[in-house]
Amino acid sequence: MPVANSVRRHRKTAGLTQEQLSQICCVSRQTIIAVELRTHEPSLSLAFRIALALESTVDELFSIESAPLRSTLTGHLVSNS
What we know:
Layout: E1 3-5, H1 7-13, H2 18-25, H3 29-37, H4 44-53, H5 58-61, E2 62-64, H6 67-79
Antiparallel strand pairs: 1-2
Helix pairs in contact: 2-3
């Protein structure tokens, strides 16, 4: 399931370099680069650390990219409640 993210935009707005964000999140700079380029989907733990470092939320930083998939999931969740 493709995941879109706005980590780079939020990082730049926060005035942080990739190196600084990587140090705050206790990961390598290469990991931050891969997350920003969407070649690596972060673990839930890393997603929360990035969100905390950028004074954001996981919901603001990451989202399901496919609208049809999103509506299918939403419909499934509603019908099961």
